[in-house]
């Protein structure tokens, strides 16, 4: 009999209950007991959903107060020693200080979890890091689930993935130098789980989907040989890609079973089934954990049926990866078009899909025939719907030439014209785009959407916010201004709402990091821009100042990556459709006398395939999409882009090929380490390395930012160096924002004076 499970469930709650409880705690409006009560209620609700759907286990250990990697470090006691916290006595306030920083401490570095828009806190590896045990939160959650009558499967980040995803800070030549200590910490934890009577542990090793070198690949066999004695049965979980090159290794590992992602690695199954050991479970991720299209149950059942007779109860069915990456429950969407809604499945609906497949395989097809019929109807509807295809979009895309992706002149020519036009000081200061989204702004947007205020009232409120932002930037002395984006709910959703081919949910929230949640649009059809989206706002803002006002757009790759994308055509085709829509907007901004235009691409690195052999194809079309969006303007129009919270050094030639006049990047949490690669590569265009971390409430002092700028000068020529925060300021409050920008502007002024003095002496 096949078994059913999931690799994880969204932790935030269908109405973002965890987000609001976290933020209340951070603001001092509630205490730790209230926050813990919210977490317990959400866990109980989500376990009940899994049990009621008919899963054979509920997954425990997928809940995290901020991030599952940080949670694992807290569990093992491997938190950075620079904070001075006792891992065994860690409070939630301490835990959040690790993630968010404080006046005394820089926050831990944050970056993307593989190729997702989910962020994790990067482990800090040094020779003195300890794995002697930390908090007992996982054991407490296991007790909670058992008290509610559930059969428990524990989920853990695997030891090699944890080690690989960290960063060496001091005292180590290689991350694997820490492996003995890591293994000892995991052995201690697994022994505790065995004593607790846990019958299955899901141990996630997604690094197997990467192209690992021999040292990492060869570490798996001895690591798991040491872990499996005195441990519960281990299900080694792979996801985000195919792992067929490791088939022999995975078959030989002394684990109870292996999980494969058949959504992103559909062709790998045959290589595993042949010769699969008689004593191992084979868990198959057949329901997509990263997209929200309804599963074609007939197709998947046809794929699985031949395995049932061979594997019996050693066949497990599940999600391709954790359902963390999709919204919680489609039942809360009462305003979606019924046809489109019939095509979708959120996390709760995906539980039912997994169980329907299990029932059909186990001989109970009649009990789930209605679900199979609904799946069949949804697939037929998507194939035949007239709303998906737009002949005009397809004709325009077919007519695109290589010349459409090239600026008229080279960068050296363009930048000379731009400098002559703008006459900016050395080390020009700017921000990334958004300013604090106050409760008044959010309330006005919500009232407008509900029809409680008219268009003119809404326009007046937003213009007043823009006036305030421009006034404050003028007071601060920033050199290049932005309008602050008060009218924008989200950098992708705002644009998607104005493009054909996009649809939106009311409660389709997904966690990005901590309490930060996004509501990704759904790209269901060909993308087209019916009219200008931002021109009026930027044009109005420019009338308020003599300084340059940047137009702000989200780039085509980020619009793609941060949406739920249609799966009936190549992703690159959809990206190029978006690029053409944005090209029209860029040209309209230029015609409206907006001479600086920022096209943000924070997801550019995120879209990179996990295997290097697949990089060239992606990078070619991703660069082409960006250039098509940007290349329709004249030489004097300055194109900016922004990238954040990713490692860029391995794709610098392609970033340079994007040919943006100015790139701003996140660098403060890494103490400018991310900038080193740009210097070694001799990146040719202007760069603005972020000098302070906007994801922390901590306000850095002038000296700190000046020190970072001096480090940047060692990498970037003075005439190419800009000064800016790491990212947009949307999530910050006005007092800290004003103080931080005031310090930033002063740091830039000090540097100008210092450099001028150096030149005079020379």
Describe the structure.
This protein has 762 residues and is of the alpha/beta class. It has an eight-stranded parallel β-sheet. Strands 17-19-20-21-22 form a five-stranded parallel β-sheet. The chain is globular, with a radius of gyration of 26 Å. The mean pLDDT is 94.
Q: How many angstroms separate the termini?
A: 81 Å
Computed CA radius of gyration, to the nearest angstrom: 26 Å
- Tell me, briefly, the overall form: globular
Mean pLDDT: 94
Give me the count of strands.
22
Query: Counting H and I runs of at least 4 residues, what is the number of helices?
Result: 27
What are the defining features of this structure?
762 residues, alpha/beta, 8-stranded parallel β-sheet, 5-stranded parallel β-sheet, 27 helices, 22 strands, 12% strand, globular, metal-binding, transferase, 5-methyltetrahydropteroyltriglutamate-homocysteine S-methyltransferase activity
Write the layout of secondary structure elements.
Elements: E1 3-4, H1 17-26, H2 32-53, E2 58-60, H3 68-76, H4 92-100, E3 110-112, E4 119-121, E5 124-126, H5 137-147, E6 152-157, H6 159-164, E7 167-170, H7 179-195, E8 201-204, H8 214-227, E9 234-237, H9 247-252, E10 257-261, H10 269-273, E11 281-287, H11 297-311, E12 315-319, H12 338-341, H13 347-361, H14 369-384, H15 391-398, H16 411-422, H17 439-449, H18 455-476, H19 493-496, E13 500-503, E14 510-513, E15 516-518, E16 522-528, H20 535-542, E17 550-554, H21 556-561, E18 564-565, H22 571-591, E19 596-600, H23 615-630, E20 638-643, H24 652-658, E21 662-665, H25 676-681, E22 686-689, H26 702-713, H27 734-761
Parallel strand pairs: 1-12, 2-6, 5-7, 6-8, 8-9, 9-10, 10-11, 11-12, 16-18, 17-19, 19-20, 20-21, 21-22
Antiparallel strand pairs: 3-4, 13-16, 14-15
């Amino acid at each position: 009999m096949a078994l059913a499970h999931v690799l994880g469930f969204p932790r935030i709650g269908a109405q973002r209950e965890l987000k609001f409880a976290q933020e209340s705690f951070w603001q001092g409006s509630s205490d730790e007991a209230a926050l813990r009560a919210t977490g317990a209620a959400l866990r109980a609700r989500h376990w009940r959903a899994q049990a009621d759907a008919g899963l054979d286990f509920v997954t425990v250990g997928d809940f995290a107060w901020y991030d599952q990697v940080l949670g694992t470090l807290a569990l093992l006691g491997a938190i950075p020693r620079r904070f001075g916290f006792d891992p065994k006595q860690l409070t939630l306030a301490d835990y959040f200080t690790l993630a968010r920083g404080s006046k005394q401490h820089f926050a831990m570095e944050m970056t993307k979890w593989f190729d997702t828009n989910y962020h994790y806190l990067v482990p800090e590896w040094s020779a003195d890091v300890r794995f002697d045990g930390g908090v007992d939160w996982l054991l407490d959650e296991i007790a909670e689930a058992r008290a509610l009558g559930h059969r428990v499967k524990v989920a853990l980040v695997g030891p090699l993935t944890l080690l690989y995803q960290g960063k060496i800070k001091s005292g180590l030549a290689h991350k694997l130098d820490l492996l003995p200590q890591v293994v000892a910490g995991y052995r201690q934890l697994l022994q505790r789980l065995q004593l607790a009577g846990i019958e299955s542990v899901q141990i996630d090793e997604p690094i197997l989907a990467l192209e690992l070198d021999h040292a990492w690949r060869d570490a798996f066999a001895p690591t798991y040989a040491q872990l499996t004695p005195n441990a519960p049965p281990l299900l080694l979980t792979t996801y985000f890609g195919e792992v067929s090159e490791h088939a022999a290794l995975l078959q030989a590992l002394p684990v109870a079973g292996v999980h494969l992602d058949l959504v992103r690695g559909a062709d790998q199954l045959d290589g595993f089934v042949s010769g699969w050991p008689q004593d191992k479970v084979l868990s198959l991720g057949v329901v997509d954990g990263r997209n929200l299209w309804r599963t074609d149950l007939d197709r998947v059942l046809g794929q699985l049926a031949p395995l049932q007779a061979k594997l019996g109860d050693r066949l497990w069915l599940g999600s391709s990866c954790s359902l963390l990456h999709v919204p919680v429950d489609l039942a809360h969407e009462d305003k979606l078009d019924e046809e489109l809604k019939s095509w979708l499945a959120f996390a709760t609906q995906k539980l039912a899909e997994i169980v329907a497949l299990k029932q059909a395989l186990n001989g109970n097809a009649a009990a789930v025939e209605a679900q199979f019929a609904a799946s069949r109807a949804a697939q037929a509807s998507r194939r035949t719907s007239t709303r998906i295809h737009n002949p005009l979009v397809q004709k325009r895309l077919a007519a695109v030439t290589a010349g459409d992706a090239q600026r008229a002149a080279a960068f050296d020519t363009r930048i000379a014209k731009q400098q002559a036009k703008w006459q900016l000081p050395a080390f020009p200061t700017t921000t990334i785009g958004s300013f604090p989204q106050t409760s008044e702004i959010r309330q006005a947007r919500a009232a407008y959407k509900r029809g409680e205020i008219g268009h003119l009232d809404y326009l007046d409120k937003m213009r007043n916010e823009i006036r305030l932002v421009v006034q404050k930037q003028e007071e601060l002395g920033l050199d290049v201004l932005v309008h602050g984006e008060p009218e924008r709910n989200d950098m992708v959703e705002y644009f998607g709402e104005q493009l054909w081919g996009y649809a939106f949910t009311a409660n389709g929230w997904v966690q990005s990091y901590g309490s930060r949640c996004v509501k990704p649009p759904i790209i269901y059809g060909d993308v087209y821009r019916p009219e200008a989206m931002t021109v009026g706002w930027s044009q109005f803002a420019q009338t308020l100042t003599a300084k340059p006002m940047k137009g702000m757009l989200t780039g085509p790759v980020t619009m793609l990556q941060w949406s739920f994308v249609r799966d009936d055509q190549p992703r690159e085709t959809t990206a190029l459709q978006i690029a053409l829509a944005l090209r029209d907007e860029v040209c309209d901004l230029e015609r409206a006398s907006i001479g600086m235009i920022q096209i943000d691409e924070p997801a550019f690195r995120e879209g990179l395939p996990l295997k290097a052999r697949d990089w060239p194809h992606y990078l070619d079309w991703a660069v082409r999409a960006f250039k098509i969006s940007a290349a329709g303007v004249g030489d004097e129009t300055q194109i900016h882009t922004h990238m954040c919270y990713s490692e860029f050094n391995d794709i610098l030639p392609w970033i340079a090929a994007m040919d943006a006049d100015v790139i701003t990047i996140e660098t403060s949490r890494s103490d400018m380490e991310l900038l080193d690669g740009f210097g070694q590569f001799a990146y040719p265009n202007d760069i603005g390395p972020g000098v302070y971390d906007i994801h922390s409430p901590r306000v850095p002092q002038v000296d700190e930012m000046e020190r970072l700028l001096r480090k940047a000068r060692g990498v970037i020529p003075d005439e190419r160096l800009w000064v800016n925060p790491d990212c947009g300021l949307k999530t910050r409050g006005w007092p800290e924002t004003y103080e931080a920008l005031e310090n930033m502007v002063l740091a830039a002024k000090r540097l100008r004076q210092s450099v001028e003095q150096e030149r005079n002496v020379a």
